[in-house]
From TrEMBL:
EC class (word): transferase
GO CC term (a single one): cytoplasm
Enzyme Commission (EC) number: 2.4.1.1
Family as reported in the entry's similarity comment: Belongs to the glycogen phosphorylase family.
Keyword Glycosyltransferase: yes
Keywords assigned by UniProt, alphabetized: Carbohydrate metabolism, Glycogen metabolism, Glycosyltransferase, Pyridoxal phosphate, Transferase
InterPro entries linked: Glycg_phsphrylas, Glyco_trans_35, Pyridoxal_P_attach_site
Single GO molecular function: glycogen phosphorylase activity
Catalytic activity: [(1->4)-alpha-D-glucosyl](n) + phosphate = [(1->4)-alpha-D-glucosyl](n-1) + alpha-D-glucose 1-phosphate
GO biological process per UniProt: glycogen catabolic process
Official protein name in the record: Alpha-1,4 glucan phosphorylase
Length: 826
């Protein structure tokens, strides 16, 4: 045992970093933690014991980090996010502690394979897609950069649903991620906080001052569960604190006392429903009461936690902005703004103005969308019923804000209506993005183009009013998980080329640029890709019984299923190639062999998205089985795409599909992961694609499609998809093949809604971009045939994508928004 004394008080011990030290602790965890002998231990016993052993190695660092932070009284980031899509924890913890080899050897000496235990872990899928995964990358980067951060969120009992296919159609299964034990979490029921809901407000006289209090109707407990967020080999461990809802005693007793035992238990279920399940929608808010309960629940817990427990007891809250910045991850946590106001004004009895001055400095807001239908609004009726005091506070914030605007722009009532936090139509409601913009010290978009559009098209009145409030921070991804862990072969090659420092300083990848012209290096690079394809092939065979053909280009589109992302355009390309073969325009014996891989979940109530999933699977079933193709084209769609699958899929890809309609994808982060792993992108001028193309160079990126201003013009002029269908025979044939039932057993009605939608509405201009897309795909085929040229481009994609490290994103947030310097080790 190695002892560590922190400040002469807490004594923390870490097991020894040797094979023997590890084996000893592992066996102790098996017997004392799991209560089994090695001989009798199941794989799950072994996994749980391993996880608990590894976390022992992090414990001293965690406690020391907390201690040091308290001493330094440094400013922290509180990242408020309803979602964290963490991925598996074991490998990341092993990397952070540099224990992989020790553990591998130690387990082997006991006859256990590390990989078997890795595969036992169920990933916590506490997020929908890009927004949740971004939060996970950000907390990883902050820990690695030694920046104080607490991530706050919700510990859903059920994360994003598990996707299955029945006859090619999506069927959702609950994701019971806690079923086999949760070795990475630390529950603290003793530190639970109470959250109130419902009721009414009343005013009272407080020594001559009129004050308001909230007379609530019901409450729940928020129980914190802590998770370690280890920095990469830097001795730092930050905290992620997720809240779980539990019925309060008062809640139970009230009903128990009336003898209604069954009702009491039911009521308990009601309270605990709040953190039961993640909403699987990621685009159109449903305005559901439970969702607002979730949002208020976790931010109320988090603010109370920070103010009452993280800060020292005697802390003067007037100095709160010196110690915290609450970063609002989209509008989901924006109810935190009136909550902090309520705490300061009602509970701490401050004046409104001084409370508002402090509150405004404590928040910043990140917007993650451009789709108007994705901007959250809550009806005044619901808000008033669930959070009556918060509604009053929002009204007052709005009143004072509009008075200020009116003073600057006298007589401009239209402006006031446009900028009001309260919308009057179609129903009276609170515009959460406006509330966040008014309250936040900064508002940022997530890629350069997105931030421009946010400023000029989504919030133009606000950006004219506060030009300095608006800024950009381009997203990033953590190179620890998405290169170092997910692509060990490439990591080794990179290290060979530029040394070890790239894992925390990704711009060093630039050092690889000259090697793109080195024949020998290119061969090694190709060997890495080939190895990764084999790894994927083995996984898909075992996971889904899918067989991948060898020697094919791997063309991948993985992301949530949404019409704006245009998976349909990808399908039209596949059908077009099929049609060309059937017509004899392409010879399957000589054409470029391709595997089209999809991964995508559709929101359960999003019918068109589910049609598209059905279409992909039906096209796949038809094409994969058609002997006339001779195996030249293969469609694979492994169900349940998640972080774990991404980690094997992305490193194997040759081509990355980033084909959203220009102006619709805020950033994308999958696009960055592919480029960093040496795939070339075929993409529109959208989101972070713009910056990827600028960096990797036009020659190493396949651009197609309308530009955002062209999209705007075309839509303004009245877009008619039917004209593209009539005028492009190849497009017509592709659509007709689908419409005629070629992929649905001759039954044209199966995909009729989708075809109808494409021909008459096509909100996201798939038909308008079809020709340009097909031409670009033909260029892809030609480029891929030049093996050396393709490899060169792939290497340049890796070498020039260092900008997309989430470490860089974090530096930008620190510089432009947070002003939270790292706390360096002693
Ligand atoms: C919206 C909603 C609406 C209500 C129901 C639950 C829910 C959950 C999440 C969202 C957020 C959707 C926005 C989102 O995920 N945006 C994505 O954010 C990524 C990270 O910034 C970015 O790369 C993607 O382009 C963007 O679509």
């Amino acid at each position: 045992m190695t002892d560590k004394r922190v400040n002469g008080s807490a004594v923390v011990t870490s097991p020894q970093n040797t094979v023997e030290g590890f084996v000893k602790e592992f066996l102790r965890e098996l017997s004392f933690g799991q209560g089994v002998t090695l001989e009798r231990a199941s794989v799950n016993d072994q996994y749980l014991a391993l996880a608990r052993t590894v976390r022992q190695y992090l414990m001293a660092r965690w406690l020391e980090t907390l201690q040091r932070q308290r001493e330094a009284q440094a400013k922290s980031v509180a990242y408020l996010s309803a979602e964290y899509l963490l991925g598996r924890q074991l490998d990341n913890a092993l990397l952070a502690t540099d224990l992989t080899e020790v553990v591998e050897e130690g387990l082997a000496s006991l006859g256990i394979e590390l990989q078997t235990l890795r595969d036992q872990e169920t990933e916590p899928g506490l997020g929908n897609g890009g927004l949740g995964r971004l939060a996970a990358c950000f907390v990883d980067s902050l820990a690695t950069m030694s920046v104080p951060c607490i991530g706050y969120g919700i510990r859903y009992d059920y994360g994003i649903f598990r996707q299955t296919f029945v006859d090619g159609w999506q069927v959702e299964q609950p994701d019971n991620w806690l079923a086999l034990g949760a070795p990475w979490e630390f529950p603290h029921p003793e530190a639970a906080v109470t959250v109130h809901f419902g009721g009414r407000t009343e005013t009272y006289d407080d020594e001559g001052v009129e004050r308001t209090r909230w007379v609530h109707d019901w409450d729940v407990l928020g129980v914190p569960f802590n998770y370690m967020v280890p920095g990469y080999q830097n001795g730092r461990v930050n905290t992620l604190r997720l809240w779980s809802a539990k019925a309060t005693q008062a809640f139970d007793l009230q009903i128990f006392n009336s003898g209604e035992y069954v009702d009491a238990v039911r009521a308990q279920t009601f309270a605990e429903n709040i953190s039961k399940v993640l909403y699987p929608e990621d685009s159109t808010p449903q305005g559901k009461e439970l969702r607002l309960q979730q949002q208020y629940f976790f931010v109320a817990c988090s603010i109370k936690d920070f103010v009452d427990y993280v800060l020292p007891e005697d802390f003067d809250l007037h100095r709160l902005p010196e110690r915290i910045i609450f970063q609002l991850n989209d509008t989901h946590p924006v109810i935190a703004v009136p909550e902090l106001m309520r705490v300061l004004v009602d509970e701490k009895k401050w004046d409104w103005d001084e409370a508002w001055a402090v509150t405004q400095q404590c928040f910043a807001y990140t917007c993650h969308t451009l789709l108007p239908e994705a901007l959250e609004v809550w009806s005044v009726e619901l808000m008033g019923r669930l959070l009556p005091r918060h509604l009053e506070i929002i009204y007052r914030i709005n009143e004072e804000f509009l008075a200020e605007v009116a003073a600057k722009h006298p007589g401009d009532d239209a402006l006031l209506e446009r900028m009001s936090i309260i919308a009057e139509r179609p129903e009276r409601s609170v515009r959460m993005a406006y509330l966040a913009t008014v309250a936040g010290s900064k508002v940022n978009g997530v890629a350069a183009l997105h931030s421009d559009l946010l400023r000029d098209k989504v919030l133009p009145d606000f950006s004219a009013y506060w030009p300095d409030k608006f800024t950009n921070v381009t997203n990033g991804v953590t190179p620890r998980r998405f290169v170092r862990l997910s692509n060990p072969a490439l990591s080794e090659l990179i290290t060979e080329a530029v040394g070890v420092g790239w894992v925390t300083d990704l711009e060093r990848l630039r050092g690889m640029e000259p090697l793109a012209d080195d024949q020998e290096f290119r061969e090694k690079f190709r060997a890495v890709k080939a190895h990764n394809k084999e790894r994927l092939s083995t996984l898909l065979q075992a996971r889904d019984g899918i067989t991948l053909p060898a020697d094919a280009m791997l063309d991948v589109m993985v992301k949530r299923l949404h019409e704006y992302k245009r998976q349909t355009l990808k399908v039209l390309h596949i059908v077009t190639l099929y049609d060309r073969v059937l017509r004899g325009e392409l010879d399957p014996a000589t054409m470029q062999k391709r595997v089209f891989a999809f991964g995508a979940k559709a929101a359960p109530g999003y019918h068109m998205a589910k049609q598209i999933i059905g279409l992909i699977n039906h096209v796949g079933a038809t094409i994969n089985d058609d002997p006339r193709l001779g195996g030249a084209l293969t469609v694979v769609f492994p169900p349940n795409y998640n972080v774990t699958l991404a980690e094997t899929l992305i490193p194997a890809a040759d081509l990355s599909e980033q084909i959203s309609l220009a102006g619709k994808e805020a950033s994308g982060t999958g696009n960055m992961k592919f480029a960093l792993n040496g795939a070339l992108t075929i993409g529109t001028d959208d989101g972070a694609n713009v910056e990827i193309r600028e960096l990797v160079g036009d020659d190493n990126f396949f651009l197609f499609g309308l530009l955002e201003p062209q999209v705007a013009d075309l839509v303004a002029a009245g877009y008619q998809p039917g004209r593209y269908y009539e005028e492009d025979p190849a497009l017509k044939r592709a659509v007709d093949l689908i419409a005629s039932g070629t992929f649905s057993g001759g039954d044209g009605s199966v995909f009729a809604p989708l075809v109808q939608n494409l021909l008459t509405e096509d909100r996201f201009l798939a038909l308008a971009d079809y020709r340009s897309y097909i031409d670009a795909q033909d260029r892809v085929d030609a480029a891929y045939a030049d093996v050396e040229g393709w490899t060169r481009s792939a290497i340049l994609n890796v070498a020039r994508s260092g900008f997309f490290s989430s470490d860089r994103s974090m530096w930008d947030y620190i510089d432009r928004i947070w002003h939270t310097p790292p706390v360096v080790s002693r």
